[in-house]
Design a protein that fits this description.
CATH class: Alpha Beta
Shape: globular
Number of domains: 1
Structural class: alpha+beta
Order of helices and strands: HEEEEHEEH
Largest sheet: 6 strands, antiparallel
CATH superfamily: YgaC/TfoX-N like chaperone
CATH topology: Yope Regulator, Chain: A
Number of helices: 3
Number of strands: 6
Length: 122
């Protein structure tokens, strides 16, 4: 998935920046990362306020292999497939993901530690 294609997908949401990172890419709005792309799949930022939407649709989190051979779990969840063809609904989900990113950034600024997600042996 090219950066141009990603920017086109998010047109109804607004302008986004795509930056390469760790074999994938981060998707940013106003300097805040709210989504990531890995192997052609988009994952949106989730937190306690928007996680229920992902859970209802049984959308898994983005995971990665650790040096110890385990699976790390992130706060990014797989985007519903239908959103690749529905820019208006994608904009709604993207706004929620951006809000989650902002909330997460605010908790860091206030000195509170964000809870770490557990590492599992998936």
């Amino acid at each position: 998935m090219s950066p141009e294609h990603i920017r086109e997908l998010f047109t109804s949401f607004g302008p986004v920046t795509v930056k390469r990172m760790f074999g994938g890419a981060g998707i940013y709005s106003d300097g805040r990362m709210f989504a990531l792309v890995h192997r052609g799949v988009i994952y949106l930022k989730a937190d306690t306020q928007n996680a229920a939407a992902f859970e209802r649709e049984e959308l898994p989190p983005f995971t990665y292999a650790t040096k110890a051979g385990r699976r790390g779990v992130t706060s990014y969840r797989r985007m519903p497939e239908r959103l690749y063809d529905d820019p208006e609904e994608l904009a709604i989900w993207a706004r929620e993901a951006l809000a989650a990113a902002i909330r997460g950034q605010r908790s860091n600024v206030r000195g509170r530690k964000r809870p770490r997600l557990p590492i599992s042996d998936l």
